[in-house]
Automatic annotation (TrEMBL):
This is Annexin. It is found in: Zymogen granule membrane. InterPro entries: Annexin, Annexin_repeat, Annexin_repeat_CS, Annexin_sf, ANX4. Belongs to the annexin family. It comes from the Eukaryota. The chain crosses the membrane at residues 153-175. PANTHER family: ANNEXIN, ANNEXIN A5. One of its GO terms (cellular component) is zymogen granule membrane. GO terms for molecular function: calcium ion binding; calcium-dependent phospholipid binding; phosphatidylserine binding. The keyword Signal does not apply.
Amino acid sequence: MFLQAFRGTVKASANFKASADAEVLHKAMKGLGTDEAAILQLLTARSNAQRQEIKASYKTLFGKDLVHDLKGELGGKFETLVVALMTPPLTYDVTSLHHAIKGAGTDEKVLVEILASRTPQQVKDIIAAYKTEYDHDLEKDICGDTSGHFQRLLVILLQVTLILSSFLVTSLLLLHQKCFAFFQASRQTGIQEANIESDAQVSFREKLCNNPEWFFSVFDAYTKLSGYEMEESIKRETSGSLRALLLAVVKCARSVPSYFAETLYYAMKGAGTDDDTLIRVMVTRCEVDMLDIRAAFRRMFACSLHSMIKGDTNGDYRKTLLLLCGGDDA
């Protein structure tokens, strides 16, 4: 349960030479017109770490910033996607969180997705990098921009994931008392009125650290006692951002790839496309577990991830996304 799978579709190139790649990109942007095909083919065939080496080599060879030049040559969603690919993963998460908090209004979807799905070490690194980049405390910024139980649960995720994996936090959030006691409290007053922070957190933390398999048996016990799946109870008893956060934590507890498969599906389903979410997930998961996300997507829905991207996007933006997807599971 604690093993981190490396099931990405984008892998490091075996025959990699940063200077040669920098030359290819410079040629693609030199003179009249831009060779977008050369740019997207190269960048999707290199790991993020290799792209950082290309960026440094480009600066050495041509005295220019590669990302700045790409922005000047590209446009629209394709530009946004390429710039995301050129950003180190930690920097991308930190920047996404900062924009979610400090922009016009709060993008709660970004807060939920990142904090519920990242590993304990990633959360720890995000907190440190946020402090370095913005000279602000992430927890304080989140508290200043959110409120109520949603805020309290976000803070718990920031604090507790330094000790436990984020998927184990579900037990601390929902099951800090006995399953039956929680069920009674939720039936009588609703989850929003439940005492989320309790002295029992300490004993539960010890229980989970010593026997993490207990986490799943608790889910089963809750279902038997209440007659409802955990997700169903959350939907019945909560709403808005609190519901989204609780569901995200539970879904990540069950399967991170399935969580992202569902996230991608609803980013494209219906009228319009949530391109910000589509880009964020495809970029951040293409080197981690995209193969598993694709498999979960095909299992959960009546089409493949590849086919849905193909039908919902166009142009160089679509071509790049499909290369990140890595294949069709039709």
